Amino acid sequence: MDYLNLKSKILDNVKKRGGWVNAHAHIDRSFTLSNDNLKYVYRPLQEKWLLNDKLKRESTVDRIYDRMAFTTEKMIKQGVRVLGSFIDIDEVIEDKAIKAAQRLRDHYKKSIKIIFINQVLQGVIDKKAYSWFKIGSEFVDIIGGLPGKDKGKEEKHLEIILAAGKEMKKMVHVHVDQLNTAAEKESELLAKKTIEAKMCDRVVAIHGISLAAHKKQYRKRIYRLMKKAGITVIACPTAWIDSRRSEISSTTHNAVTPIDEMIPEGITVAIGTDNIVDIYKPFTDGDMWTELRFILESCHYYEINKLVDMATVNGLKVLGLKDGYSN
Ligand SMILES: [Zn+2]
For residue 175, how far is its CA from the centre of ligand 1 (angstroms)? Predict the structure, then answer.
């Protein structure tokens, strides 16, 4: 059949550019869905942050390694050349994910470049949480943040992680605006704090879903502010497309990162899979094409070259890599 096959065109070009870059995942918790924890799938995000505590406590380094390795092989098989993953480092899991991560990186170093970022599910303000944040920051390539975990003290959370990034000369990746509501303004706060901390061009916003719920004037203003701060973005398309229905009126939009507006504004956007087969995303299987398809469909965005950039070189940029193999 003679027709314009855009999917093949994208896949061919991704291959030509060296392969997929999965810029955001949580491979230490992927494939942890079980009959035991299936009951948690309807619970709100903030509860899920702690609902894995039992699993984290009971997981051995070997078990964590096995999950990471299973996911990594799935990535290699579909042509992912670079993978950026958060790993939990906190008082619950302690340094078990660090140990597994080190082993994983050594084992797969010939087939895939893996960049680690610390997830701070206990926040960074509480004394104990902060001490684990410091331990985690030493190990990882990129400092991770989750201001929503220190609710009401988001500014302080950002100040702490940005200061750590600056001191250690590391980039910072932050989960922001995940709840799909105009009540959230975390991307704005992140951009302001980035400028204040003189960390421009070193900070990456993950998700940014709530931006799409705001009015156009606000969105435009924030895109420009993000551009000024040199903030780049990672969209994880299937991660929030399941955002729950609410009776709050807002701008009509799909619950994804508004790439159709960000890219024309000059903001670099990469993609990631986020959670894979766990209590957050029981059906997300880590397939990169599925993620790219979701973002192009939900944003009505058909710019082939830009989509290929998102899936490849932009991923390298947000992970602080020049050619994919040097940091
Ligand atoms: Zn995440």
Answer: 6
Mean pLDDT of 196-222: 98
pLDDT number for residue 323: 52
- As a whole-number percent, the residues of the chain with pLDDT over 90 amount to 97
What is the rounded average pLDDT for all residues in the chain? 96
Domains in the chain, ordered, with CATH? 20-318 (3.20.20.140)
Name the pLDDT band for 219 (thresholds 50, 70, 90): very high
**CA–CA dist 164, 139 (Å, integer):** 13
Reported as a single tens digit per residue, the pLDDT across 106-136 is 999 999 999 999 999 999 999 999 999 999 9
Distance 1 CA to ligand 1 centre (A): 41
CA of residue 32 to ligand 1 center, whole Å: 15
Question: Which residues place a Cβ less than 5 A from the ion ligand 1?
Answer: 274
pLDDT at 228 over 70: yes
- CA 84 – ligand 1 centroid, Å: 11
